[in-house]
Write a structure and sequence with these properties.
CATH topology of the largest domain: UDP N-Acetylglucosamine Acyltransferase, domain 1
CATH architecture of the largest domain: 3 Solenoid
Distance between the termini: 96 Å
Number of strands: 39
């Protein structure tokens, strides 16, 4: 659906510099933009490319000027870009109602404005809020609670007792509430410890594809409000994630570890169990965290340490080959090592 520059500027709280009536039919990066497209630039290099492109208008957040393009000036170009994407590419809508192939017991409470897609299976006493969507082939176990405006993509599984807040998105293949990995060694075997807790997902959380979040052994595993979890993440039993955390792909968090708010774990980070990670902590990719981390710190490495300490060690490691060569040269000059071939020459004289 096309929009005028004025309509777009109003949507993002910006102002138009140039022809506000120009019609924009799409959003594209500068190197692919065509006439009628809108593109964006958040620095001078991007602006030069955007101005040379075929785009009809540019979203900017600086003091750029142009005699060739219509500009839409906003406080933050990248934020405006994200909001405008929703205009040109709106989310698909789902009609309310229950598909004939879905299995819904009489004890389930499904809001009349919810959508239950084909081949979904609901357990006893499930509650589903207004405008929530189960797209298809979803399993929702007994006593699960799902708030309003939740979107479960195909083949999401919620084990019994899972609690989902409002405006939560869970992508395909994710399993919420499976048993935690708990065993005790008893008489030569690993005896299973029953996992009788549940999982609680707060409001405005997004969970990627093929994520697994285990139920608590006792009490809940909790994902805080506004936290975003990438694909292929494992969160163990009784973990607590604070609000607005970013958990990137292939992270693994062991049992009973607790994260503060606004924590960022980059790709393939591993956290040992029973740790306390403070608020606004960042951990670099592929780090292995074995110790508690105070608020506001940046850690990296395996085992992970504060970033400055790890960087100093990495610099020293890079210098080791040259240091070893110089050390051997000093040994040779001091006569602490034989010259190459000296042993063979000495043997021939004897």
């Amino acid at each position: 659906m096309p929009f005028t520059a004025a309509e777009i500027a109003k949507h993002v709280g910006g102002e138009v510099v140039g022809d506000a009536s120009v019609v924009l039919a799409g959003l594209a990066p500068a190197d692919r933009a065509q006439s009628g497209d809108l593109t964006f630039a958040e620095n001078e290099i991007h602006f030069v490319r955007a101005e040379q492109s075929a785009a009809s208008a540019i979203i900017i957040d600086g003091s750029f000027t142009s005699s060739r393009k219509v500009l839409i000036r906003v406080p933050k170009a990248r934020i405006a870009f994200a909001r405008i994407l929703g205009l040109f590419f709106p989310e698909p809508t789902f009609s309310s109602g229950i598909h004939p192939t879905a299995i819904v017991p009489a004890s389930a409470q499904v809001d009349l404005a919810a959508h239950i897609g084909p081949y979904c299976v609901l357990g006893e006493n499930v509650r589903i809020g207004s405008r929530s969507v189960l797209q298809g082939s979803n399993f929702v176990g007994a006593n699960c609670q799902i708030g309003a405006d939740v979107n479960l993509f195909p083949q999401v599984t919620l084990y019994p007792g899972t609690e989902i807040g409002q405006r939560v998105r869970i992508h395909s293949g994710s399993v919420i509430g499976a048993d935690g990995f708990g065993y005790v060694f008893d008489g030569g075997i690993h005896r299973k410890v029953p996992q009788i807790g549940n999982v609680i997902i707060r409001d405005d959380v997004e969970i990627g594809a093929n994520v697994t979040i285990d139920r608590g052994a006792l009490g809940p595993t909790v994902v805080g409000k506004g936290t975003k979890i990438d694909n292929l993440v494992q969160i163990a039993h009784n973990v607590t994630l604070g609000e607005h955390c970013l958990i990137v792909s292939q992270v693994g968090i062991a049992g009973s570890t607790k994260l503060g708010d606004y924590v960022t774990l980059a790709g393939q980070v591993g956290l040992a169990g029973h740790l306390r990670i403070g608020s606004r902590v960042s951990v670099a990719a592929q780090s292995g965290v074995m110790h508690n981390i105070p608020d506001g710190e940046k850690w990296l490495g395996c085992p992970a340490q504060p970033d400055r300490q790890t960087k100093r060690q990495l610099i020293v490691m890079q210098q080791l080959p040259d240091l070893l060569r110089r050390f051997k040269e000093v040994e040779r000059k001091l006569g602490l090592v034989e010259e190459p071939g000296a042993s063979a020459e000495k043997g021939s004289l004897e």
